[in-house]
Amino acid sequence: MKKIITTSKAPAPIGPYNQAILSGNTLYTSGQIALHPKTGELVLDSIEKETKQVMENMKAVLEAAEMTFENVIKTSIFISDMNNFGEINKVYGSYFNEETAPARETVEVANLPKFVNVEISMIAVK
């Protein structure tokens, strides 16, 4: 059985998907990009600000499922330029305790939705 997780504190889906699905105790999030949930505008001032907005969007989705970053067991990071990895990793890492950080992959891709620089999805468990 699945439960749809939705919050107005993260951007509304821009296609036929939901922000997250809770199946049993496991949360599967859709990828988040740097859309500001209130304005609908992309936050692209810098790669650091873009990544922070992505992580804040993800935080809102986790909170809607009554979870935190401590519940995250796996992340997928998609970036348009591997040269941005260091800056993205620094912001991303500030949301986790290094000793209990989740498993993860980081993949460079040709393009992302709305031609952003970073998209992140997560799996979390209660």
TrEMBL record:
Which InterPro entries does the record cross-reference, listed alphabetically?
RidA (IPR006056), RutC-like_sf (IPR035959), YjgF/YER057c/UK114 (IPR006175)
- Source organism's superkingdom? Bacteria
Q: Name one Pfam family in it.
A: Ribonuc_L-PSP
Family to which the UniProt record says this protein belongs: Belongs to the RutC family.
What name goes with this protein? RidA family protein
- Species name: Polaribacter marinivivus
Please spell out the taxonomic lineage of the organism that makes this protein.
Bacteria, Pseudomonadati, Bacteroidota, Flavobacteriia, Flavobacteriales
